[in-house]
Design goal:
Largest sheet: 5 strands, antiparallel
Distance between the termini: 58 Å
Helix content: 25-40%
Number of helices: 15
Strand content: 5-15%
Length: 526
C-alpha cells in the first residue's frame, strides 16, 4: 500500500502532542447496548431485485442500466462478521479491504438506505459503536476479523469525518424508524466529547477543528493548517444532527445545547474561513491566516447550512467555472487550476469521487429556490452520471474514482467499487435526476419534476409506505402532466414543476390515498 506525504502546516501544539496512548482509555462498547451478534440471512440480489425501487426514465435507459449494476454489486458487499469477530451486526463493506472504514460506510448508507426494508445498512455503524473506547474515541478503520484498530501511518490520522449522527438521521428520513436513536445517542455524545478534546485547535485564535489528509478521507490532497473547513463544518453537521436525535428521544434541553454549539462553530467558520473575493471557504493556520487551496473541501459549509444567499451564489460560481471545477466530469477533488492538479486523478489530486459529489449536490439541495440551485444540482448529477455510464459501457463495471478530464476511470482506481460509488447511480438518480425527496418520518414525498419525458419510480419505500409514481410525457418544462400513482398507504405529495418558478408559484400539494389514482398537474404560468 502506498504511503503518502501529507502537507500539514501551522498545526497547533495540541496536534503534535497527540499520542496513540490517548485513545486507549477504559473499556469498549459501554456506550452502546448491543453486545452480541444475532445470526441472520444476507439477502441475495436475484431474489431481492423485485423489491427494490425501480426507476423509470424513458429518455435515459443507460441510467437505469447503471442503477441495476450498482445494486448487483452492492448486494455482494452485504456481509456477516467473520467467525470470532466482536462485531455485533451485519454490515455493508467498502469492497476492497478486510477492514471497515467510517468514511466509506457513511456514504454507502446514503444510497443503501433505499433498500432499508431488505438490508438495514444503518446497522453497519453498530460495529463502530461496539468498539468505541470509554473516552469516546472511535478509530477510522477497524479490522473485521478481530475488531482491532488498523493503524496506517501515525495516530494523528486516526479520525475520519465525524458523521455518525448525520448518517443516523439520513437513514431515518427514508426508513421513518427512529427506534435506534435512544441506543446510539450516548455513543454519539461521547464521540463528540472526544473530538472536542482531541481535534479542536485550542491554542489557536479560532478554536476550530483539524484533521489530516488521510484522516479527512481526502488522502493526498494538498491541505494544511489547524482549522480545516471540512472537519469544522462536519462538526456543525454532527451537532445539528445530534440535536434531531435528542429531540426525538425527549432530551429537548440537550438538543438546544447541541444547536447552540453548532451555531457557535458555524459563526467561527464564517468569520475565519470565508473569503469574499474568492467566494470560497479556506483552511486556516493558528493565527487565522487562510491557506488557499481550492479543493472539494471548500464546499462543506453548504451541506452544513452555514451559507448566506450571496455565499451560495459565489460558491456556485466556482462550481460552474470551467477552469476550476466544471470539467469534463464533475467535480474534481482539486481544482483544475491548482499547481498539484492531475488530469488522471492521482487519487485526491483531481479525481472525481462519490462522497464529495454527494456532499456538494446535497449542499445545493439545502438551498432549493436560490439561484436555481436545484436545476444546477440536476445538471451536475447528469454530467457525473453520463460519464459513469460511458465508462461502464467501456469497462463493464463501476470504479472507485473517475477522471475529471476524460471519460475514464482515474489513476489508482479500483473496479467493482460499490462501495460509495453507488451513490451516483442510486441516490443522485432518485433524488436529483428523478427529483424525489422522500420523508418517511412524516409520510411525505416532495417531487422536483424537472423532466418532460415519461418518468418516475415504482416501489419507492419510505417509512411504512410503498408507492409508485409515473408522470406522463409533457410538451415542455412549463406544461402540465398527469401522474399515475399506486400506494399501499396514505401520504402527502408536494410537486414543484420546475425550480425557476418555485419562488413565484406555490408548490402543488396533494393528499394521496391508499390505492390507485391519477393526479392532474396544472401548467406553470410564465
Amino acid at each position: 500500500m502506498k504511503k503518502w506525504v501529507f502537507i500539514l502546516t501551522g498545526l497547533s501544539i495540541s496536534v503534535m502532542a497527540f499520542s496513540q496512548d490517548m485513545t486507549y482509555q477504559g473499556g469498549r462498547g459501554n456506550h452502546f447496548p448491543k453486545k452480541k451478534y444475532t445470526n441472520s440471512l444476507i439477502p441475495a440480489f436475484a431474489e431481492s431485485k423485485s423489491k427494490l425501487p425501480e426507476p423509470v426514465l424513458t429518455d435515459n435507459p443507460g441510467y437505469v442500466e447503471l442503477y441495476w449494476k450498482s445494486w448487483e454489486l452492492a448486494f455482494t458487499h452485504f456481509k456477516k462478521p467473520p467467525a470470532g469477530s466482536p462485531f455485533v451486526s451485519d454490515f455493508i463493506d467498502e469492497a476492497f479491504s478486510p477492514a471497515v472504514f467510517q468514511w466509506d460506510t457513511f456514504f454507502m448508507i446514503e444510497f443503501a438506505r433505499y433498500a432499508h426494508s431488505i438490508f438495514p445498512a444503518i446497522q453497519s455503524l453498530d460495529n463502530f459503536y461496539c468498539r468505541q473506547w470509554d473516552d469516546g474515541f472511535i478509530h477510522r478503520e477497524i479490522q473485521e476479523k478481530d475488531g482491532m484498530e488498523f493503524w496506517f501511518e501515525g495516530p494523528q490520522h486516526a479520525v475520519n469525518p465525524p458523521l455518525f449522527a448525520w448518517a443516523e438521521v439520513e437513514s431515518w428520513k427514508i426508513s421513518g424508524d427512529n427506534s435506534r436513536f435512544k441506543n446510539v445517542y450516548p455513543a454519539l455524545v461521547k464521540n463528540l466529547e472526544w473530538l472536542e478534546k482531541n481535534r479542536k485547535a485550542d491554542l489557536s485564535f479560532h478554536h476550530l477543528y483539524w484533521n489530516t489528509g488521510l484522516g479527512s478521507g481526502m488522502d493526498n490532497t494538498p491541505r494544511g493548517g489547524s482549522g480545516w473547513v471540512d472537519m469544522s463544518a462536519q462538526m456543525v453537521l454532527a451537532y445539528n444532527s445530534l440535536a434531531i436525535v435528542a429531540d426525538a428521544i425527549g432530551k429537548s434541553t440537550e438538543a438546544v445545547s447541541h444547536r447552540k454549539r453548532a451555531e457557535d462553530i458555524g459563526a467561527a467558520i464564517n468569520k475565519w474561513m470565508w473569503n469574499e473575493q474568492d467566494g470560497l471557504y479556506y483552511d486556516i493556520d493558528n493565527d487565522g491566516h487562510q491557506i488557499k487551496h481550492k479543493t472539494a473541501a471548500c464546499f462543506w459549509p453548504m451541506i452544513a447550512g452555514l451559507c448566506s444567499p450571496s455565499q451560495v451564489q459565489k460558491l456556485m460560481d466556482n462550481l460552474k467555472n470551467p477552469h476550476t471545477f466544471w470539467r469534463t466530469n464533475v467535480f474534481p477533488s482539486l481544482a483544475a487550476d491548482e499547481e498539484n492538479f492531475r488530469g488522471d486523478g492521482m487519487y485526491w489530486q483531481g479525481g472525481v469521487w462519490a462522497p464529495t459529489n454527494v456532499m456538494i449536490i446535497k449542499g445545493l439541495d439545502r438551498y432549493a429556490g436560490l439561484y436555481n440551485t436545484t436545476e444546477f444540482g440536476v445538471l451536475a448529477s447528469e454530467r457525473y452520471l453520463d460519464n459513469l455510464v460511458e465508462v461502464y459501457r467501456k469497462t463493464g463495471t463501476i470504479w472507485e474514482t473517475y477522471s475529471s478530464e476524460s471519460v475514464s476511470r482515474a489513476f489508482w482506481s479500483k473496479p467493482d467499487f460499490v462501495g460509495w460509488s453507488g451513490c451516483g447511480p442510486v441516490q443522485l438518480l432518485i433524488e436529483n435526476i428523478l427529483g424525489f425527496r422522500p420523508d418517511g418520518a412524516n409520510k411525505k414525498l416532495v417531487w422536483y419534476m424537472n423532466r418532460i419525458d415519461e418518468h418516475g419510480i415504482k416501489k419507492l419505500n419510505f417509512g411504512s409506505i410503498t408507492a409508485s409514481l409515473i408522470a406522463q410525457k409533457r410538451k415542455d418544462i412549463n406544461s402540465g402532466t398527469q401522474i399515475s400513482i399506486e400506494t399501499d398507504a396514505n401520504f402527502e405529495l408536494i410537486v414543484f414543476l420546475n425550480e425557476q418558478n418555485s419562488l413565484q408559484f406555490k408548490p402543488q400539494t396533494f393528499q394521496i390515498k391508499k390505492g390507485k389514482q391519477v393526479v392532474n398537474m396544472t401548467a406553470v404560468s410564465q
